[in-house]
Amino acid sequence: LRRVLVRLQRLLAPEPGALFRLLRLPPQWISEHDLEELRQATEEFSLTIRDMSELKERIKLLQEEIAAQVSEQTNASVFTLTMVTVLALPINIVAGLLGMNVGGIPMAGSAEGFPVIVGIILVFTAFAAWYVYRNKIRK
């Protein structure tokens, strides 16, 4: 809509100037009644072009407002994805290390190995969540 208004305004903007020049020095063959009608039509035409310009500005402001809202939603989505990534990072690191199937993995033969690893993962995840939450509150 904005592009259409810009094209229309560009096309129609010179017309009122030409019509006002014609009204200043009208040809002799135009009657006084026709001049008055042309004067009224020219004023209405000028007002219409001015209204188109104001409408174009309103559309521009609305587009900027919509762009700001979309940007805000995108930032919120990126923040959520970042939080998920940060909170899943310790689990992925430990799972990657324990999934290598090599000898010498700590606590592989111990019955307490699994609960200790889960506890370490929970501590790292809680620390990461606390750190991110603390930094978000500061901002």
Written overview of the protein:
By secondary structure, the chain is mainly α. The protein has one domain (2-138). The chain is built from four helices and no strands. The protein is rod-shaped.
Integer-rounded radius of gyration: 36 Å
The total strand number stands at 0
Helix content: over 70%
- Extract low-pLDDT stretches: none
Query: Could you tell me the strand content as a percent range?
Result: under 5%
Number of domains: 1
Series of H and E elements: HHHH
C-alpha end-to-end distance: 39 Å
| Largest sheet composition | none
Structural category is: mainly alpha
* Distinct helical segment count: 4
User: Average pLDDT across residues?
Assistant: 84
Q: Overall 3D geometry?
A: rod-shaped
Structure summary:
By secondary structure, this protein is an all-alpha fold. It has helices at 2-12, 14-24, 32-98, 113-138.
List keywords for this structure.
139 residues, mainly alpha
Q: What is the fold's blueprint, element by element?
A:
Layout lengths: L1 H11 L1 H11 L7 H67 L14 H26 L1
